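Sat 14:20. Reprocessing the chain from the morning session after the first attempt stalled halfway. Input below, unchanged.
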Amino acid sequence: MKKVQVLGPGCPKCVELGKRTEQAAKALGGDYEVEKVSELNKIMAFGIFTTPALVVDGEVKMVGQVPSVDEIKKLIG
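Finished this time. Tokens:
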């Protein structure tokens, strides 16, 4: 199972990234666990200072933007 984390305090961009990430994971049909991380200390532990961010299996894949569902599929696939 791939662990996909959406990092962000809950701002509109963070919420949108969460929705798109869930859509991408569902469309891929794989075994994904999508987790939303909103606690600042946990976000900073990844070395992230700009949100939203997307992390796949502990590796930061994207910071500071909201890619399309198709782009997210490539990042998490």
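Residues 12-28 form the longest helix (17 residues).
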